[in-house]
Amino acid sequence: MRATVLSLYFLLNRMWFFSADFKDEFSTNTIAAGYIGNGYLKEAKAANRGIEFPNVYGVNLFHNVSGGKNEDPGVSLHFAGEKWQADTIFRYDLVKVQSKTFYGNVAEESESIQPSDFVRGYRFVLPDDAIKDVADVFVESDSGSFRWKNRRFQKLNTSDYLISRAENTITLASNRQS
After folding, report:
1. DSSP state of 127
2. Going by C-beta distance under 8 Å and a sequence separation of 6 or more, which residues neighbour residue 2?
3. CA 4/CA 23 separation, integer angstroms
4. Following DSSP, what letter does each residue of 60-85 receive, concatenated?
5. Which of 54, 87, 55, 90 lies closest to 72, judged by CA?
6. Per-residue CA distances from 77 to 28, 35, 43, 55, 154 (Å)
7. Do the beta carbons of residue 139 and residue 154 sit within 8 Å?
8. pTM
9. Tens digit of each residue's pLDDT (9 = 90 or more) over 135-174
């Protein structure tokens, strides 16, 4: 099987450029635009991937910001004079921070929960003194074994709910399986 590789490089007035590379069945496309100058600003580039820091500074001893499979969008700027050079990158890194804490031979595990992944219980407030008549709690469920008016209900275990007679409330557990 042959791999499709399509490259385009367009240079305008020897200073403005546009480039596009389409390869690996279009899964690693790169599109970039920028400026090549003769003053202190030697190059400015914005791209959807391939924004890399030069290897000349030794910054890779601590953080890998150059080379590799850089899939992140960003902007790079390269400045230089007769006896100096400076580079900067602004890149959106699609990384996930992971850490692990050990206590002796035991590893502590933690999980980050996004705000969109919240789970909550359900709380119902009953009229005064009605809570004293509650013997069991049922929820509507397709797999329930109790029928009433063409609807099916499942009886909850006592660990799936909390009855507070002082507050006249029934709170359903958020992790109940029904």
Report:
1. P
2. none
3. 6
4. GGTS--SSS-----EEEEEEE-SS-E
5. 90
6. 23, 10, 6, 14, 64
7. yes
8. 0.48
9. 888 888 888 888 888 888 888 888 888 888 888 888 887 6
